[in-house]
Amino acid sequence: MRSVLLDLKDVTFDYILENKQSLRAVNDLSLQVEEGEYIALIGPNGSGKSTLARLLNALLIPLFGEIQVDGFATRVEEHRWEIRRRVGMVFQNPDNQIVATTVQEDVAFGLENLGVETSEILQRITESLNRVGLSAYAEHAPHLLSGGQKQRLAIAGVIAMRPRCLVLDEPTAMLDPRGRKEVLDTIHSMNRQENITVVHITHFMEEALQADRVIVMHRGEIAAMGKPETIFNGSIDLHLLGLEVPPIPRLAEMLRAEGLTIPKGILDTDDLVSYLCS
Amino acid sequence: MRSLTLGHYLPGNSLLHRMDPRVKLVSLLVLIIALFVIETFLGFMLFGSFIFMIFLSTRLPWRYFFRGLRPVFLIVLITLILHFLFTKGGQVYVRWGPLTVEEAGIYLGSFMTLRLVLLVTTTVMITLTTSPIAFADGIEYLLRPFRRMGVPGHEIAMMMTIALRFIPTLMEEGDKIRKAQMARGADFETGNIFRRARNLVPLLVPLFVSAFRRADELAVAMEARCYRGGQGRTRLRELQARPLDYYGLTTVTAILVFIILTGV
Amino acid sequence: MFIEVKNLTHVYMPGTPFQVNALTDVSLDIERGEFIGVIGETGSGKSTLVQHLNGLLKPTSGEIWIEGNNLWSSKTDLRRLRSRIALLFQYPEHQLFEETVFKDVAFGPRNMGVEGRELEERVRYGLEWVELDYHTYSQRSPFSLSGGEKRRVAMAGILSMYPEAIILDEPTASMDPVSRKHFLARIKRLHQEGKVTVIFVTHNMEDIALLAERLFVFASGRLVLQGQPAEIFQSKETLEAIGLGIPVLTDLMQKICRKGKTIRTDIFSVEDACREIIRSRREGVG
Q: Would an 8 Å CB–CB cutoff place B261 in contact with chain A?
């Protein structure tokens, strides 16, 4: 029985627009995320997933409702720093997260903010860079790195702070296939080897297939939630929710409609091949 | 564009490289004051020899040195010519219609030019041997005592670091925007200076908008990593003054004192 | 022959420590009306290549021929060329700068000397193609639009030049799946109805699998493969080694084929895959 790390109760959030009108981005949402879980958060544009991410580390504060991170309430200003050391965040644009003029200095940034002793900073940097495979680049200027490397640097900068949870807002959207793979492998290994809770926001359905739990958002609410097999097996009309079904599950569904009995849990290529060729 | 060495910094291991940036900044200030106190060509010669010796110790290639002087070359030339032509006094050496070149002009022209050259030379030497991060650290430390007066030393240093970090990125983006507009028929080359300034709008507006957007996103990312200004921050590298630094500072101060006392 | 690239080599900042051999000895042809896919990972040289096709970059060595004319030997009107062969850069929403959508879409044609009635027609044309209503959008500030709308305005700004060919550099970067689908449908229409030659640069195999007639595959500045998509996707290992992949469905069909079933592998859509799998099972060949 894993403990609850993130606890959201009846959370509502509005954006105030230029014309003073309010736009409800998250509506009466409740959710519990357990320690060590890998959650994929999917949904069409405007469904509130990015907003939800920013609510998790107190970058945004709910209008109504409560969010607790490891017992700390996001609404309490004094708790915000404790929350942000527990919930680290990686954003979509690799460049606009990097602050310093060398890789090493950038990883140090978060540690410096936390007031970690100078003697310990270097050690943690070495650890983190090792973890993401960037040790050879410690003295490099960031603009010389590839997209995938920059995102790994961003991840290193966050994990050096030893968070319990990693929230990633479409981290691979701006990367090429190689970069995407690098980043996804890094995230998965963090989750599996270090038991870091992961909340991964993505519009790539294939990335959601790897999660422990998939949460589908629609117009600020949770429209569906469950294991990837459940969400993508055709029982939920994802199209209606503004999403595309990944090709393999969609194909499986079409074949079922043609009379083939394909087990509901088939999500990836190899599974489908094994079944069709048996 | 990418060949611009950031702040002209060249890594190395000479004495000057290893000196504490705070000491270098203060020494630079002291030396500049010295330059303005010097009254004779002899003073400049002595000063120049000192700088020359330091330069040799850095083991830097000559060409970077001259590259540092290039931006001011025009100013130096103009200063020289203006003094030659318009400063009057003493013996007239050349007469060319209404224009004359007189002794005072030559003297003052040479004097001012020499001071300018030595000033730039000294500054270039410091920038060639000090990394941008070290600069920012040095400035942050030196401004700390002024915090009580409301001088945001840490924030200034942070802004410097971030600006330096983004210069190559923004230059690349500027290049991309320029090409994108050229692909739509924009012309950045022809026309007089006013025309060309106006034609820069399709380049500058998107660049500025983008820079602001980046700043916005960066601020959020910094907050997410627990940034809250300079309070309670530790540093990866703490600045440590060593014997070398004390010798350097003493030497430089001694030079200033010598110049003042001897009136050279 | 519309566009010919002959032994093109391009080196950035030659002779400096920052030298990059972006392209080495690349030769290829593009016929009028074709839909070409240029694929490769970041840094493979694909963007550098396409910037030569409208004269934005000059070859370090080699030649670019447009309709039988050497681009750099004669006094080519480059600005005019850029209205005929239009290039849309990656994240084009970042190039918008005018006060109104109308003015921004009009920028291209205005640089060509177009004004008045015809200018308005061209702006309408551009906005129509990207499915943005003229009345709703033309007087709005581009900066007040959503990311997707901005990108469409940028696209309209290229189409308003009535180009004969359009080069799209990773046009679906960061797009959500629904927007992507709409965009690709629009490009397909543009190619077929508008008779525009399309050069689509991407590292996303799914994008061009269905649309491209021919592919040019780049790695480390060299053209390593060229041919029809079905042929190219046979070389899965090669593609993976250079940082690319093959479409998921094609991979599926290839794997089924390798297990001994007689099945077509030039499949890129779910509908085709379904049909082919059913057919293969019905014919019961093992």
A: no
Which of B182, A59, B34 lies closest to C83, judged by CA?
B182
C-alpha to C-alpha distances, A266 to A206, A263, B124, C178, nearest whole angstrom: 13, 6, 66, 24
pTM of the predicted model as reported, rounded to 2 decimal places: 0.89
Q: What is the pLDDT of residues B64-85, one digit of tens each?
A: 777 777 778 888 888 888 888 8
Amino acid at A165: C
CB-based contacts of B123, cutoff 8 Å, min separation 6 = B28, B32
Write out pLDDT tens, residues C95-120: 999 999 999 999 999 999 999 999 99
Report d(CA B228, CA B232) in Å as an integer. 9
Contact B187 C143 (CB under 8 A): no
CA-closest candidate to residue B207, choices B157, B159, B166: B166
What residues 57-116 of chain C have any CB closer than 8 A to a CB of chain B? 79, 82-83, 86-89, 92, 94-97, 107-108, 111-112
User: Does the model's ipTM exceed the 0.90 cut?
Assistant: yes
Give domain limits for chain B: 15-130+240-262, 148-224
Residue C201's SS3 state is strand
Tell me if B177 and C157 make a contact (CB, 8 A cut-off): no
Q: Which residue has the tokens 């780049």?
A: C218
The reply to whether residue B224 touches residue A125, judged by beta carbons under 8 angstroms, is no
Per-residue model confidence as pLDDT tens digits over C237-280: 999 999 998 999 999 999 998 888 888 888 899 999 999 999 98
